[in-house]
Amino acid sequence: MSSKLIGVGVGPGDPELVTVKGVNALRAADVVVVPVMAAPDGKDGGERGRAEATVLHYVPEEKVVRVVFALNERADRGRREAAWDAAGGRVAELLTAHGTVAFATIGDPNVYSTFTYLAQTIQDLFPGTVVETVPGITAMQDLSARSGAVLTEGTEPLTLVPVTAGAAVLKEALNGPGTVVAYKFGRQAHEVAEALRETGRIDDAVWGSALGLAEESIRPAADLDGGPLPYLSTLIAPARREGGRGGKL
After folding, report:
1. Rounded CA separation 167/104 (Å)
2. pTM score, two decimals?
3. Rounded-to-integer distance, Cα 238 and Cα 18, Å
C-alpha cells in the first residue's frame, strides 16, 4: 500500500478551533509530526510551538514526533534547503516505518504553510506517496471573529499579504478597493503603521497576536507606536464601506 502524508490545519492557537475532521485525522494517523524551530546550531531548540501545543489536546504525547524545520531562516538559502532536506528525510523514514503520517500546521496547510515544502520534498523522494490536506481555520478568520472586523461584503475583494514581501506590496494592496489582511508583520510594525496612515486606512484597521492563547492581544491599528510586535501578528484593514447596508451588492 502507498504511504500517506496528511497536512492537518490546527488553527491559529485555540484548541477549540480544530475541526472535527482535523481531530479525526490526527487520531487516525500512525504518528503526528509537529514542526519545531531550529536553534542556532540547527538542532531542536526545545521550544513547544503552537501546533504541538494544540495537537497534545487530542493525541497522546508518545504519538507526536518533533521534526526541526528552518522556520526562521531567510537569509541563508543553502542552510534553509539543507534543513528542508533533512526534515523531509526524517518524515520519509516515518512514512516507511508507519504508513500514515499527519503533519500538524497552524492555520491552514495550503496558506503560507511549511507543509507545502515538505509535501514537495516527500513527492520527490517517494513519487507514489499520497498527499492529502485537511483545511484549518486561519488567523484572519479568528481575528475577524474576535474583533468584529468584517472581512468582505458584497463584491469586495480580499487581499492577503505577507509583510515579509515588503512594505511596497502592502501599500499597493491598501490603495486598492477591498479588505487587506497582512500576515507576519510584527518585525515591521513601524512600516505597516506608516503604510496605513499614508493610505488613509488606519482608523478601521485592527491587529492581533497570540489569538486564542493566554497572552492574546487585539488592538486598534491606530495604537501601533512603531515598537516590535510578535512575528506572527495579523492585521485586518477593512474595505472602505459607504452607502449603508448592502451598499456593495
Report:
1. 30
2. 0.90
3. 26
